[in-house]
Amino acid sequence: WEADGTIRYFVSGIPEQATNEDLFQHFLQYGKVLDAMITQKGGTSRFGYIKMADDSTRNSMLADTHQLCGRTVTVLLSKESLIGSGLKKAHIDNCAEISAEALRDAFTRFGPVLDVHTPKDHQTGERRRFGFITFGTDEALQAAISVGMITVESNEIPIRAATQNSDKGKSDPWAWCPWGKSDWASRGPYGCVGKGDVWVPSG
């Protein structure tokens, strides 16, 4: 949320023929649109930003499927609007080979998804094996955590509540095991590898 109470959304996958006016007109159905701007950096796909007067239609904007000039576009909260919003975040694992779009589609079963973050390794540029899903409601977060694991594109994705440390990329290596350290010896924890007669964290 912005300091003045407005809220800003990021829109990706915008087709070449779409204009600022097209973007503006589409989102009028959700309330007062203060600004609509499409941009493009280098050879990347076009994206844009929508600034709304308030967040009264936030959940429907994020949950609905949006068509702009015949193409489906993705709508997420902008990074600025996510900061300090007190929104609910889940930590996921084993997602390095899955796109942010596929993760978002998979997790919307629990409720509105505001952001999908899959960080990259600063040295190699490759995506790391964990990520974060930010939900719009506590109910959605709790529903995801209670399930504990879902399958996305044949990959089992463990789910747990994000902590301050995990959000900074400094999570306990045992956190990769969905049933934790206490039962690792008997069950052969997920995300861990055998070393001799014992299991150790693979990270």
UniProtKB/TrEMBL annotation:
Domain (RRM) ranges: 7-80, 80-166
Lineage: Eukaryota, Sar, Alveolata, Dinophyceae, Noctilucales
Keyword terms of this UniProt record: Nucleus, RNA-binding
Record CDD domains: RRM_SF
Pfam families: RRM_1
InterPro entries attached to this UniProt entry: Nucleotide-bd_a/b_plait_sf (IPR012677), RBD_domain_sf (IPR035979), RRM_dom (IPR000504)
Source taxon at top rank: Eukaryota
Subcellular compartments: Nucleus
GO MF: RNA binding
GO CC, alphabetical: chromatin; nucleoplasm
Protein name (record): RRM domain-containing protein
Gene Ontology BP terms: regulation of gene expression
